[in-house]
Design a protein that fits this description.
Elements: E1 6-7, E2 14-18, E3 27-32, E4 37-45, E5 60-71, E6 77-92, E7 96-98, E8 106-111, E9 114-119, E10 121-125, E11 128-133, E12 136-139, H1 145-154, H2 171-185, H3 187-197, E13 203-205, E14 217-225, E15 228-231, E16 239-242, E17 247-254, E18 257-262, H4 268-274
Parallel strand pairs: 3-11, 4-12
Antiparallel strand pairs: 1-7, 2-3, 4-6, 5-6, 7-8, 8-9, 9-12, 10-11, 13-14, 14-17, 15-16, 17-18
Helix pairs in contact: 2-4
């Protein structure tokens, strides 16, 4: 028999979504760590409005480097990183309703009208599955800012759980965050491109592992753009191709030589610092 939605404060040590069925032995439950509150981490990547969310009921905000993966039709997958910000809320369990949905490591719930998935550990076998909801948990990254406002409405401050114990970024992670954040915002790339096309020669820094003749930076002197077609008559029977499409690379002057450097090989944070364009913080 399937369960009904139930307030977390009324669940006790477990929430059984489906009981074992005779001859099938199908069972799904959520094991719950006890307490009066949930500490909920809600993250957003740099560039999303939610990353800059502020509210008196946010117990802590920290920088994070998030790892994502993309699946391809071939079955292959690719991991990638993005700079982000995590906001922490302390929410009374009476404000959290568990939903009778099988999430398999993603516990489905509702907080003040907002549907969320708690990212938890879980496992099972033989027709049974158990998810483990701890007192400190996470929801999916990139909830819209309206969702964070609704969660903040029922969050509280001044509980014994504060200050929230969060681990700050290590120096190497902080450097990586700065690079990713600067790249995500796009401002620096656009400004560097504009400077070069205006005849300026900004300093462009390459990422670690890239160099030319032992040098890791140079003056930006030209923008390599893709070709773009433009019709030259109303009938659209004639056209011309001009190299004014998307930016593909930047030509650097390094040690007297012109070097073509891809955008993915540029350290945008270091480049921003070198030219007084630092906007990552």
């Amino acid at each position: 028999m399937a369960a009904e939605p139930k307030r977390l404060s009324e669940c006790g040590t477990e929430y059984v979504i489906e009981q074992a069925i005779p001859d099938k032995q199908d069972k799904y439950r959520v094991e719950i760590e006890q307490g009066d509150f949930l500490v909920i981490e809600a993250g957003a990547v740099v560039g999303k409005a939610a990353a800059g969310f502020k509210h008196p009921n946010v117990a802590a905000t920290v920088k994070r480097v998030y790892n994502f993966r993309t699946y391809f039709k071939s079955g292959a997958k690719k991991w990638y990183e993005k700079a982000g910000v995590s906001h922490y809320f302390v929410v009374p369990r009476s404000a959290v309703t568990l939903l009778p949905e099988k999430g398999y490591s993603y516990v489905k719930a509702e907080i003040n009208g907002v549907k969320v998935s708690f990212n938890v550990s879980g496992g099972g076998g033989g027709g049974e599955w158990t998810d483990y909801l701890r007192a400190h948990t996470q929801v999916s990254v990139n909830h819209p800012i309206r969702d964070l406002k609704k969660i903040a409405e029922v969050a509280v401050r001044g509980t014994p759980l504060e200050p929230i114990q969060v681990k700050p970024l290590e120096p190497q992670e902080e450097a990586r965050w700065n690079q990713l954040a600067t790249k995500a915002k796009g401002d620096v790339k656009d400004e560097v491109v504009a400077l070069i096309e205006a005849g300026k020669k900004p300093i462009v820094k390459m990422l670690e592992g890239y160099s030319y003749g032992g040098q890791t930076s140079g003056e930006g002197i030209e923008i390599d753009r893709a070709y773009k077609m433009r019709h030259t008559n109303a009938q659209k029977t004639e056209c011309e191709w001009k190299k004014n499409g998307v930016v593909r690379a930047i030509i650097l002057l390094v040690g007297g030589y012109q070097v073509r450097v891809k955008l993915s090989q540029i350290d945008w944070y270091a480049t921003a610092q070198a030219n007084g364009l630092d906007k990552a913080a």
